[in-house]
C-alpha cells in the first residue's frame, strides 16, 4: 500500500526550543490515525508541517509524493487547526461558497447546502461568523476543511466546543469519507471511535506507533486504555 504521508528525520525548533526531534513515520493511503500526546508534545507543529504552514529545519515530508507547500499537495489536503477562525465578516454561507469556489468544487451551491444541513447550520446561514457561538464556529470550520472531499484530512481537536448530537454527526461524516486521516486529540474515546491506529508523541519524539487493539492488549488487570497511554507517555519523559 502506498504512503499518502511520509515523514523522514524531521526536526523543527522555535529558537532554542526543540518542538520535533528526528521524527519519522509513514501513513498508508486510506488509514486513519490518532495523534496523541501531552500538551506541548509537538502535535500541532506536526500538523502545521504536514500542511506546509511550517518548514522543517531538517528532514523531508511528502504528501502523496509532493512537497507539502506545493499546489498538488494543497489541493488534496483538508486541514482543521485548533481554534480555527473562519472569515468573521462574512456570513456562514459566504464562507462556505467562497472556500468551495477556491477549492474548485463543481457544484458550489449544492455542496454548501449539504454542509449547512449536515451540521445544522441552516438557521445561521446568513449570520456573520463574528456573531456565532464557539460551537457553531467550530461546525463551520469543520465544513470548510471537508468541503472539497479531500484525499487527506488533518484535524486538530475537531470535537472541541461541539454538543453531543453534532459530535455524532461529525463521527458519521468522517467515518463515511474515503480519505487518509490524522486526528489530533487528547481524548482517547474520540481516538477509538474515529481511528484504528495511533501515533504517540512526547517531548518531540514518536514514542509509540501501532494499532489501538495493540494498546488495549497492553492493559494490566483492570487498567484502562487511558492508563496505558499515560504510562507510555510518562515512561518517555
Structure in words:
This protein is α/β, with parallel strands linked by helices and 237 residues long. The chain has a single domain (3-235), classed as 3-Layer(aba) Sandwich (Rossmann fold), CATH 3.40.50.300. The chain has helices at residues 43-50, 71-76, 92-102, 108-118, 134-146, 164-176, 188-194, 212-217, 225-235, and strands at 3-14, 17-28, 32-36, 58-63, 77-80, 152-156, 180-184, 197-202, 205-211. The strands form 2 sheets. Strands 5-6-7-3-8-9 form a 6-stranded mixed sheet, sandwiched between helices. Strand 8 and strand 9 (205-211) form a beta hairpin. The longest helix is centred in the middle third of the chain and has 13 residues, at 134-146. It is globular.
CATH superfamily: P-loop containing nucleotide triphosphate hydrolases
Task: Using the coordinates shown, work out and report the CATH topology.
Answer: Rossmann fold
Distance between the termini: 33 Å
SSE pattern, N- to C-terminal: EEEHEHEHHHEHEHEEHH
The top-level CATH class is Alpha Beta
Q: Could you say which overall geometry the principal axes of the C-alpha atoms support?
A: globular
Low-confidence stretches: none
Kindly state the percentage of residues in helix.
25-40%
Q: What does the main sheet amount to? A: 6 strands, mixed
Corresponding CATH architecture: 3-Layer(aba) Sandwich
Strand content: 25-35%
The value of Rg in angstroms is: 18 Å
Give the topology, please:
Blueprint: E1 3-14, E2 17-28, E3 32-36, H1 43-50, E4 58-63, H2 71-76, E5 77-80, H3 92-102, H4 108-118, H5 134-146, E6 152-156, H6 164-176, E7 180-184, H7 188-194, E8 197-202, E9 205-211, H8 212-217, H9 225-235
Helix pairs in contact: 3-4
Amino acid at each position: 500500500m502506498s504512503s499518502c504521508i511520509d515523514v523522514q528525520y524531521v526536526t523543527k525548533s522555535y529558537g532554542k526550543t526543540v518542538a520535533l526531534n528526528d521524527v519519522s513515520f509513514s501513513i498508508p493511503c486510506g488509514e486513519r490515525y490518532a495523534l496523541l500526546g501531552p500538551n506541548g508534545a509537538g502535535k500541532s507543529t506536526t500538523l502545521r508541517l504536514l500542511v506546509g504552514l511550517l518548514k522543517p529545519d531538517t528532514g523531508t515530508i511528502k504528501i502523496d509524493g509532493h512537497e507539502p507547500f506545493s499546489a498538488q499537495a494543497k489541493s488534496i489536503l483538508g486541514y482543521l487547526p485548533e481554534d480555527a477562525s473562519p472569515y468573521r465578516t462574512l456570513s456562514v454561507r459566504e464562507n462556505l461558497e467562497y472556500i468551495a469556489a477556491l477549492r474548485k468544487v463543481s457544484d458550489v451551491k449544492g455542496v454548501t447546502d449539504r454542509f449547512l444541513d449536515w451540521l445544522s447550520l441552516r438557521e445561521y446561514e446568513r449570520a456573520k461568523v463574528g456573531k456565532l457561538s464557539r460551537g457553531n464556529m467550530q461546525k463551520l470550520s469543520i465544513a470548510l476543511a471537508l468541503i472539497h472531499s479531500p484525499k487527506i484530512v488533518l484535524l486538530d481537536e475537531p470535537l472541541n466546543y461541539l454538543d453531543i448530537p453534532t459530535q455524532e454527526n461529525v463521527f458519521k461524516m468522517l467515518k463515511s469519507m474515503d480519505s487518509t486521516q490524522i486526528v489530533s486529540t487528547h481524548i482517547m474515546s474520540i481516538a477509538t471511535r474515529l481511528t484504528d491506529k495511533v501515533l504517540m508523541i512526547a517531548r518531540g519524539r514518536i514514542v509509540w506507533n501501532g494499532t489501538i487493539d495493540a494498546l488495549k492488549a497492553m492493559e494490566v488487570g483492570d487498567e484502562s486504555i487511558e492508563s496505558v497511554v499515560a504510562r507510555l507517555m510518562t515512561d518517555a519523559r
